[in-house]
Design goal:
CATH topology of the largest domain: Immunoglobulin-like
CATH superfamily of the largest domain: Immunoglobulins
Shape: globular
Helix content: under 10%
Number of helices: 6
Oligomer: single chain
Structural class: mainly beta
Strand content: 35-45%
Number of strands: 30
Largest sheet: 10 strands, mixed
């Protein structure tokens, strides 16, 4: 059983974004990729600093080799004496290539012929493994309010098709982000998903109408997860294997096995792999418990900088279910699980009612303590027009963009990540990422520890037209005994 997923879905999600005031930034670009900033005098009292130590934005989600990346942002400035002081500069660097695409020649040479080449230098995508990324390091002087701008030329040979790790450093703070870079010269070889390529490349496919009509197509990187079968018997060994296809891979992959009970997943086993090389593989095995303890549904998930991947298998045997029914019931009553997380994934509708109840674990009663939700906006550029709104069953708007909502923007402030909101006479801690991001997140829990969420019914509304979105939420049930 094979499960495959494309890389492209993931890379539109920016890990960190910021809001920049362009009128405050005056930049110049120097030869060799070193950025410089011409400070503008701004009285200190007029400076409005961000919540985070470093706030920044890139001018694009995806780049084509030969383009210039512009990074603008602001830091919470620290006093410095001169330009040689590290506190006067923001440093940027590309740390490494996390995955480099396996790509064909520009003349359309078949993939099999390309694999058999003896000299790696024949293929540009392999060359980037040995190219020095440090030649693109920059440092840029901040102005009085901490604003900065720098530019990095995505040089050929240094960059090829792949995912690269960009790093920003100011003082003792480091931020990292994945950046997807395409080589437009390799369009003649054609990729499997031309629509995806066109949407993510500055050089559109329509400019090369014959590119994919008479050439062999080549797949984009993907994670392949393999299970020997879908059903097992208690006592058997499950062999799990996977591979990163169509890429040279230089990053970590985590493989996790979970038991699934009533849509709630509990981790059984996890293993971290540090993969290096062309289309690397990874493996893990699991011995299913004998008897009734092994019966149930299981999930296997793979996490990396590519899209996550999930597979499922079940363990069942009718004779064992009958013979050990009482044993399983007794064993279950002895296990006192003190926390259960109930997950609901990939909801595409606009109205999502959330009802809270209680769970049982043996003689324990587990009560709802935390609600967490995430809204993923599929279409790039639609973040500002798609938002979520969270309301209580009494109609009180807790999170949303309406003026009547208690929380409208990010709750992250110096020294705090929550806001206190009174809901039906009780104080709740509310955490919110803010709007206008591709992954909009929130958390709600009572202010007082070891107390349950009294409000048992909530309504989440996705404010959108026909744009595709995915909403995820989970509820944590805990025992207060």
């Amino acid at each position: 059983m094979f499960i495959k997923i494309s890389i492209i879905v993931l890379f539109g999600v920016m890990l960190i974004s910021g809001t920049i005031a362009p009128t405050m930034v005056f930049a110049q670009y120097n030869e060799g990729g070193i950025g410089g900033l011409t400070p503008q005098y701004v009285p200190e009292s007029d400076c409005v600093f961000p919540d985070e130590k470093i706030t920044y934005t890139l001018d694009k989600d995806t780049y084509v080799i030969g383009e210039t990346m512009t990074i603008t942002g602001q830091v919470i400035a620290e006093p410095s004496t001169n330009q040689a002081d590290p506190r006067a500069n923001v440093f940027t660097s590309f740390v490494k290539a996390k995955s480099v695409f396996v790509t064909p020649f520009t003349d359309g040479t078949s993939q099999q012929e390309w694999y058999n080449l003896d000299e790696e230098e024949e293929n540009a995508s392999i060359m980037s493994r040995n190219a020095s990324l440090s030649t693109l390091d920059t440092k840029v002087i901040i102005d009085e309010c901490g604003y900065f701008e720098t530019k990095i030329k995505l040089q050929p040979i240094v960059f090829k098709n792949g995912v690269y790790l960009l790093q920003l450093i100011y003082s003792d703070t480091v931020i990292q982000q994945d950046v997807l870079v395409f080589d437009s010269s390799l369009q003649k070889g054609c990729f499997t998903t031309t629509e995806t390529w066109a949407n993510n490349s500055a050089t559109k496919m329509e400019e090369h109408p014959a590119a994919c009509t008479d050439k062999e197509s080549f797949p984009l990187p993907e994670v392949v997860l393999e299970l020997e079968k879908e059903e097992y018997l208690p006592g058997e060994k499950v062999k799990i294997s996977g591979q990163i296809k169509n890429a040279f891979f230089y990053d970590d992959v985590e493989l996790t096995l979970n038991s699934v009970i009533d849509s709630t997943e509990s981790e059984i086993k996890s293993k971290l792999f540090k993969l290096t090389g062309k289309e690397p593989t990874f493996f893990m095995s699991y011995n299913i418990p004998s008897g009734a303890d092994g019966i149930g549904k299981y999930s296997v998930s793979v996490s990396s900088h590519l899209d996550p991947q999930v597979g499922y298998f079940t363990v069942n045997d009718e004779s064992i279910v009958t013979d050990y029914a009482s044993e399983k019931s007794s064993a279950s009553s002895d296990k006192k699980i003190k926390k259960i997380i109930e997950k609901h994934n990939r909801i595409s509708v606009s109205k999502v009612p959330i009802s809270l109840g209680e769970k049982s674990s043996g003689e324990l009663t587990l009560l709802p303590r935390v609600i967490q939700g995430s809204l993923f906006t599929v279409a790039r550029g639609a973040e500002s027009t798609i938002n979520l709104q969270v309301s209580s069953s009494t109609g009180q708007c807790v999170i949303g963009q309406d003026y009547a909502c208690a929380v409208n923007d990010s709750t992250r402030k110096p020294g705090s990540i929550y806001e206190l909101v009174q809901i039906d006479g009780k104080n709740y801690k509310v955490r919110y990422s803010g709007p206008d991001v591709r992954l909009e997140k929130f958390t709600i829990l009572p202010e007082i520890t070891k107390t349950e969420i009294d409000m048992k019914n909530w309504d989440v509304t996705i404010l959108k037209d026909d744009e595709p979105t995915r909403f995820y939420y989970k509820i944590s049930y805990v025992s207060f005994e």
